[in-house]
Amino acid sequence: MQNFNTINVENTIQSGQVFLWQKTDDFWYGVNGQNILKVDKIGKITSFKKNKSDFFRNNDNLEKIIKMISKDSTTKKAIKNYLGLRLMDQDPFQCMISFIVSSNSNIQKIKICLERLSEKFGEKVEFDKKEFFVFPKPETLAEAQIKEIMKCGTGYRSKFIKSAANMVVENKIDFKKLRKYSYSQTREEICKVPGIGNKVADCIMLFSLNKLEAFPLDRWMIRILEKYYSNFHLETKTITEKQYELLHEKIVSYYGEYAGYAQQFLFKMERENFDKKWL
DNA sequence: CCAAGGCCTGAATG
DNA sequence: ACATTCAGGCCTT
Question: pTM of whole model > 0.85?
Answer without folding.
Answer: yes
